[in-house]
Amino acid sequence: MRGVITLFHDYRSPASAVAVLRLERLAESGMAIEFRGFDPFGLDAALPVTVEVLAEMQAHAGAADDEGLTLRRPPALPPTAAAHAIASIAERQGLGRRWRDSCYRALWERGADLGDAVLTALAGDVGLDRDIAAAAVEDRALLASVRRQFAAHRRQGVGGVPAILAQRTLVPGLLSEQDLRALADLSEPAVAEHPGRVR
């Protein structure tokens, strides 16, 4: 029985960008995918682009190109809780894919800071109400809910991104298309209560 694959991702991760675009493409062919935002840093502050991030960009540049994304070095890695908060609204309106694509391209192709003004503009571009998006990034209750979801994912064993939950187990999220299809064929609908940890 083919079940749902859950991808945990964060906009600050170039590997997540590739994994999201790849799985979105496969979702179009009928694969059941859930996308869940996860901030592995837990910091509401911009982070520097480290040597490790640059190496990750270089390692995944070819795969990103194959998915239609050009990875360019951003000035910094912005906090992403607000972007994930708007994502929850976009999902409910059937605009989740457009929102994810817009955020990843804004950061990795254009070096946008994903601050409140940028997120509000992106929301309008993908078809969301700008006023609702602007209110969302100021909504402390919504942001607190998003952070509680991050904490819940950590308790389930998610330690980094991208990560995939399938067959009651967490595995690295940047798999080949062939491996993803095989995983979907084996996957069961049930979600694990205590999946293994991805490091």
Can you walk through the features of this model?
Mean pLDDT is 91; it is low at 188-199. The relative contact order is 0.20. The two termini are 28 Å apart. This protein is 51% helix and 9% strand. It has 8 helices and 4 strands, in the order βαβααααααββα. It has a 4-stranded mixed beta sheet, with helices on one face. The longest helix has 16 residues, at 51-66. It has helices spanning 14-28, 51-66, 81-92, 96-108, 116-126, 130-138, 140-155, 177-186, and strands at residues 5-9, 33-37, 163-166, 169-172. By secondary structure, it is α+β, with helices and mostly antiparallel strands.
CA-to-CA gap between the ends?
28 Å
Poorly predicted tracts of residues: 188-199
Helix content: 40-55%
Arithmetic mean pLDDT: 91
Quaternary structure type: single chain
SSE string, helix = H, strand = E?
EHEHHHHHHEEH
Class by alpha and beta content: alpha+beta
Number of strands: 4
Tell me, briefly, the overall form: globular
Biggest sheet strand line-up: 2-1-3-4
How would you sum up the major sheet? 4 strands, mixed
Radius of gyration: 16 Å
Number of helices: 8
Beta-strand percent range: 5-15%
